[in-house]
């Protein structure tokens, strides 16, 4: 473990990308390397029995975290709470991996979770078939449309006044983490 993190000028970091892109893993590594509190949006969103919070409740859960001086938050940017996070963030780290790699990561993650029956948020255990079906519905089919939306939101927006790092493959992710 490093004695102290190198200088990284950002203390409010939003790690985002589509489902199974590796954003939680990356956010956890950033949080550890920089010694910043880590907030996983799924942990704020999911209740027991896979019941999601309402938009209002999610906003109420998220606001106290956003009011802090330092954090690493991860989550999908196409959800309603994205409008709350970006104005507070100093940098967006967009995990923009190719669809074939995301597909591989999802299958690997789902098989691992199913074989270990690992408890996730609020004690929920993932149903592997439902995970794959939801991924097809919410990531595979809209993948290219979502990427265009993210490009417009993060790269092409003249109003966006924060730093953006777009990581497109594992090599770029490893290089980014090694510089922290």
From TrEMBL:
InterPro entries the record matches: Cytidylate_Kinase-2, P-loop_NTPase
Record's protein name: Adenylate kinase
Species of provenance: marine metagenome
